[in-house]
Design goal:
Number of strands: 15
Shape: flat
Order of helices and strands: EHEEHEHEEEHEEHEEHEHEEHE
Number of helices: 8
Oligomer: single chain
Strand order of the largest sheet: 2-3-1-4-11-5
Strand content: 25-35%
Radius of gyration: 24 Å
Length: 285
């Protein structure tokens, strides 16, 4: 039977979140310690545990059919590789930064300057758009220290919270790329594996929609029912059921979690009572 070979990071945060989304998709993987690959026992899937920086080449060569990988790494090393789904975790930025005491008035600051980076291809393409010529020092590891030891005038690196920049007396001045984990696909993907990938993507989409949504149940007086229904966006329209107490109804709907508090306040102001909010495990629309 054909299997889909998918690569994930061997260790670290991206590894854990990748395994979690597969688990939420109902894919059960029995992975012993230090295994380089493992098969799912309830889905035609084989997981390869690889060094993050090696994954783009494995995709290009068709050794793996798909991968969960950071968009930043795909941009840097995965030219010609497409992704089919953004996964909503492992979010970060690839940014240019300079010493805090430097006066920064725009990208021309970097003209003929030295930049330390682990992302030479990404920063070079960005600078070329503005016709900026700079000298790149390629560093694997502690890039932030480069300006402090006189190796570079600025850096280009991953920024999450910004605390590492702060500790090294740097400030972020240009965001080159907003990145998150993505589901990438090998350009050599075969038809049989494409069919399996389609099934996996459908499950992933159901999980992602559920993560962004909340199920809401509330009681509403019938005279205010129309107004309350207007407030609720819902997937199509809210479900309305009569309560045992005359003149009242139970209303069920789904809210986007980012709109949650504003809508709840509006519902309360319009007579809604007994509001219950529940997480959603899967959402198929």
């Amino acid at each position: 039977m054909s299997k889909l070979k998918i690569a994930i990071q061997k260790s670290g945060r991206l590894n854990q979140e990748s395994l979690q989304i597969l688990k939420d998709c109902g894919v059960s993987i029995d992975n012993g310690k230090d295994q380089l690959k493992a098969s799912a026992n309830n889905f035609p899937l084989e997981v390869f545990y690889l060094r993050n920086g090696d994954i783009p080449q494995y995709l290009k060569d068709g050794v793996v059919d798909a991968a969960i990988i950071g968009e930043n790494l795909l941009t840097e090393k995965g030219e010609g590789i497409l992704f089919i789904e953004k996964l909503g975790f492992s979010k970060c930025k690839v940014s240019l930064a300079v010493p805090k005491n430097e006066e920064y008035r725009g990208i021309t600051y970097f003209q003929n300057k030295k930049i330390a980076t682990s992302y030479p291809n990404t920063v070079l393409k960005y600078l070329q758009k503005s016709n900026i010529q700079a000298q790149l020092h390629i560093i694997n590891g502690s890039v932030e220290i480069a300006p402090n030891i006189g190796l570079a005038d600025g850096i280009c690196d991953i920024v999450s919270s910004g605390s590492t920049l702060f500790k090294n007396n740097l400030k972020e001045v240009e965001v080159i790329l907003n990145s998150e984990a993505v589901l990438a696909v090998s350009p050599k993907l075969k038809k049989a594996q494409q069919e399996i990938l389609n099934k996996l993507q459908f499950r992933v989409q159901s999980v992602l929609k559920a993560r962004q949504s909340r199920y809401v149940l509330l009681n509403a007086p019938n005279e205010k029912l129309e107004k309350i229904i207007d407030i609720l966006p819902g997937m199509r329209s809210p479900t309305v059921l009569p309560l045992a107490e005359e003149g009242w109804s139970s209303v069920h709907s789904v809210l986007n979690k980012n709109q949650f508090w504003e809508i709840i306040d509006e519902l309360k102001n319009n007579g809604a009572e007994g509001i219950l909010v529940c997480p959603i495990e899967k959402m198929v629309v």
